[in-house]
C-alpha cells in the first residue's frame, strides 16, 4: 500500500540563498571526493606500515565504493521519504565519524572496516545533494549551470586531494589524511541546518528489503571475485562460485524489482535510451578514472620513486583539467549540446589513455603530465553530461531515485576500475619472471582507450531522435501526478 505526505511548503528562494545551498552541497562533494584522491596518494605509505598486499590496497578503495554503490539508491529514496536535509546531515555525521575511526585504525583489516562506515555516510551525500539541487534549481538551464559548478567542485577536490594528501602524509603520516574530513564535515552540518530547505517527495516509497539485499550480494560477490581472482585462480571453485552468485543475484534483482509496486530500482527508467546510456557512460568513465588514479599513485611512488607530495603534484594536470572542463561541459549541456560534450570527452579520454600505453620507468615527465591533463579534460567533460542526462527526463519527485541510480553507476564503475585494473596488473606481475609494474599496466591503458571510444559512440547514440523519443515515452509512463509540466521537455534539451 502506498501512502502520501503533503509536500512541505517551499517559498521561493533568492538567487543568493540558492548560491548558499549550492556552496553547502559543494562542500560535501569536496570532502568526499578529496578523500578518494587523498587515499590513493597515501596507498604506498599504508602498504609499508601494515605490510599490505596489492589486493589489500584494492580493498581499501573498493570496500568504500562497493558499500556506497550498494546503498546509494536506498539513500536517494530515504531522502525523498524522510527529508533530504535530514538525510544529508546524517550522512555528514557518519562520514565524519568513519573518518575519525580510520585515522585510528590499528590494522589494514580495521581500516577497511572503518572505510565501510565512511561509505555509509558517503552514500547519503552525493545523490541527496543532487536531489536538493534539482529541487532548488528548477529551471533546466539554471540547473545545468549549477551541476557544472557542482562538478567543478569535484575537480577542485581532485586538485586539492593529491597535494594536501601528499603534504599530510609526508609531514604527519597517512592517518592525518582522514583528520581533515572532521572539521569540513562539522562545518557542512551547520551550514545545512542554516541554509538548506527541507524537501520531500509527495509520494513516499516503501523500503525494498529484498531488492536492497540482492544489490549488496551482487556487487560484493562480483568485486570480491575480480579482486581475489588473480591470487586464488580464475578457475578455482571459490571464484567461479562468486561469479555465479553475482549472476544469480542480478537475475533475481530483475525478477523481484519487476513485480514490486515500489521497487528500489524502477526498471521502467531503463526503457529510456538516454537514461540507460547515462548509466553505461557512468560505468565506463568512472571505471577508467578510478583505475587511472589507483595505478598512477602506485607507479609514481613505487616505480619512479617520488615522495607522496611530489606524486600529488604530478597528478595536478588531471585535477586542473577536470575543474576547468566541468563548467565548460555544463554550459554546453545547458545549450543542448550534450552530444558535443560527450564527443570531446570520448576523444580526450582515448588520447590520454593511448599516451600511457608505452609507460615505462623512464617515460618523459612532460609526456606523462600531458597525458594526465588530456585524460582529465575528457573526464571533466563527461561527468556533467552523465548527471544531467540521468535526471533530466524524470519528474522532480523521482529525483532522488534517478540521481541514486546514476550515482550508483558511478560507484559500480569505480569499484570495477580498481578491481579489474589491479587484477590485470597483478596477473601480469605474477606471470612474469622479471616483474615490471609499468609494463604490466599497458593492457589497462589499452582497455581505458577502448572505454573512451565507447563513450563517444554511446554519446552519439543516446542523443539521437530515437533515444529522445524513448525518454519522452518513459517520462509519461512513470505515473506521478506531482510531475510538473516542465519536467518532460527537459529531455530534448540534452540533444547535441
Largest sheet: none
- SS summary, helix count: 19
The fraction of residues assigned to DSSP E strands is: under 5%
- How many angstroms does the end-to-end distance come to? 42 Å
Instruction: Compute the number of strand runs.
Output: 0
Short overview:
The protein has helices spanning 15-50, 54-82, 84-103, 108-123, 126-136, 140-171, 176-179, 181-195, 209-232, 237-259, 273-303, 308-314, 316-334, 338-354, 365-392, 399-431, 437-440, 442-462, 465-477. The chain is an all-alpha fold.
Task: Describe the overall structure.
This protein is an all-alpha fold and 496 residues long. The chain has 2 domains: 15-197 and 262-494, MFS general substrate transporter like domains (Growth Hormone, Chain: A, Up-down Bundle), CATH 1.20.1250.20; 207-261. Helices cover 77% and strands 0% of the residues. The chain has 19 helices and no strands. It has helices at residues 15-50, 54-82, 84-103, 108-123, 126-136, 140-171, 176-179, 181-195, 209-232, 237-259, 273-303, 308-314, 316-334, 338-354, 365-392, 399-431, 437-440, 442-462, 465-477. The model is unreliable at 1-9 and 481-496 (pLDDT under 50).
Amino acid at each position: 500500500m502506498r501512502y502520501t505526505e503533503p509536500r512541505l511548503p517551499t517559498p521561493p528562494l533568492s538567487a543568493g540563498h540558492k548560491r548558499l545551498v549550492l556552496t553547502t552541497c559543494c562542500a560535501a562533494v569536496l570532502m568526499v571526493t578529496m578523500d578518494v584522491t587523498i587515499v590513493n596518494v597515501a596507498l604506498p605509505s599504508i602498504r609499508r606500515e601494515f605490510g599490505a598486499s596489492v589486493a589489500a590496497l584494492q580493498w581499501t578503495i573498493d570496500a568504500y565504493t562497493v558499500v556506497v554503490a550498494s546503498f546509494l539508491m536506498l539513500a536517494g529514496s530515504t531522502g525523498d521519504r524522510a527529508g533530504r536535509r535530514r538525510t544529508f546531515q546524517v550522512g555528514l555525521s557518519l562520514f565524519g565519524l568513519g573518518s575519525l575511526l580510520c585515522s585510528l585504525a590499528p590494522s589494514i583489516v580495521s581500516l577497511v572496516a572503518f572505510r565501510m562506515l565512511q561509505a555509509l555516510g558517503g552514500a547519503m551525500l552525493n545523490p541527496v545533494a543532487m536531489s536538493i539541487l534539482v529541487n532548488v534549481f528548477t529551471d533546466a538551464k539554471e540547473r545545468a549551470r549549477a551541476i557544472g559548478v557542482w562538478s567543478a567542485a569535484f575537480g577542485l577536490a581532485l586538485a586539492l586531494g593529491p597535494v594536501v594528501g601528499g603534504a599530510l602524509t609526508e609531514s604527519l603520516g597517512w592517518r592525518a589524511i582522514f583528520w581533515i574530513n572532521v572539521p569540513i564535515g562539522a562545518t557542512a552540518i551547520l551550514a545545512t541546518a542554516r541554509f538548506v530547505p527541507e524537501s520531500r517527495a509527495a509520494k513516499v516509497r516503501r523500503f525494498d528489503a529484498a531488492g536492497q539485499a540482492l544489490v549488496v550480494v551482487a556487487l560484493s560477490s562480483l568485486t570480491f571475485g575480480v579482486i581475489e581472482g588473480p591470487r586464488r585462480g580464475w578457475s578455482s571453485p571459490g571464484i567461479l562460485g562468486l561469479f555465479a552468485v553475482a549472476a544469480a543475484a542480478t537475475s533475481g534483482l530483475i525478477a523481484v524489482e519487476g513485480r514490486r509496486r515500489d521497487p528500489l530500482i524502477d526498471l521502467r527508467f531503463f526503457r529510456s535510451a538516454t537514461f540507460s546510456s547515462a548509466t553505461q557512460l557512468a560505468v565506463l568513465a568512472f571505471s577508467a578514472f578510478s583505475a587511472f588514479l589507483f595505478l598512477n599513485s602506485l607507479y609514481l611512488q613505487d616505480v619512479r620513486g617520488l615522495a607522496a607530495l611530489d606524486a600529488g603534484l604530478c597528478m595536478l594536470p588531471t585535477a586542473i583539467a577536470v575543474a576547468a572542463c566541468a563548467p565548460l561541459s555544463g554550459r554546453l549541456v545547458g545549450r543542448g549540446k550534450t552530444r558535443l560534450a560527450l564527443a570531446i570527452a570520448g576523444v580526450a579520454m582515448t588520447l590520454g589513455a593511448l599516451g600511457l600505453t608505452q609507460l615505462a620507468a623512464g617515460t618523459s615527465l612532460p609526456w606523462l603530465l600531458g597525458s594526465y591533463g588530456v585524460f582529465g579534460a575528457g573526464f571533466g567533460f563527461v561527468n556533467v553530461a552523465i548527471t544531467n542526462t540521468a535526471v533530466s527526463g524524470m519528474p522532480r519527485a523521482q529525483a532522488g531515485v534517478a540521481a541514486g541510480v546514476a550515482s550508483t553507476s558511478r560507484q559500480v564503475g569505480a569499484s570495477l576500475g580498481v578491481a579489474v585494473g589491479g587484477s590485470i596488473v597483478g596477473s601480469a606481475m605474477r606471470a612474469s619472471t622479471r616483474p615490471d609494474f609499468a609494463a604490466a599496466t599497458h593492457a589497462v591503458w589499452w582497455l581505458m582507450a577502448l572505454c573512451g571510444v565507447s563513450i563517444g559512440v554511446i554519446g552519439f547514440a543516446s542523443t539521437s531522435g530515437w533515444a529522445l523519443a524513448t525518454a519522452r515515452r518513459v517520462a509519461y509512463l512513470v505515473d506521478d501526478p506531482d510531475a510538473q509540466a516542465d519536467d518532460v521537455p527537459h529531455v530534448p534539451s540534452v540533444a547535441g
